[in-house]
Amino acid sequence: MKKIIFLLSLGIFASCQNTNSELVIERLNEKVDQWHLDASEANFDSYFGFIAEDGIFIGTDVSERWSKEEFAEFSKPYFDRGQAWSFTKKERIVRLNKRKDVAWFDEVLDTWMGDCRSTGVLSLKDGEWKLDHYQLSVTIDNELMAQFLEITKSTSNE
Prior knowledge:
The protein has helices at about 1-40, 45-50, 70-80, 145-155; strands at about 50-60, 65, 90-95, 100-110, 115-125, 130-140. With about 160 residues, the protein is of the alpha+beta class.
């Protein structure tokens, strides 16, 4: 009888854990969606408030590896004009560590550059989720890779 009660308790605990994880993932999806919306609506303070103080943003150009401060300085004129960028989630997968204080995600975005793929790392800091690391990449269909390499080769020779 004790074994049955223990197994039932374990099952209930595991069920609660899964529900809690699902709620955290749902909340993180909302936060990342809001972050993208903040860019499209040029909400500078909210957009950069979500990035951790020591956060890193890696853009599509090989030169684009910015600290939060550098990225904010670069981006400020776009936000001031009311025209930052508009990225819309097509799909996203979020995973949590066992303690549920670190999450990572990858997503496919609809952008002015076509489909882009990005990855991010989030962590819980003083009870608030912050974006520690974000990398945005332009995608290239495999069938177009040879053509792409020709273009990059010709531009690197100039």
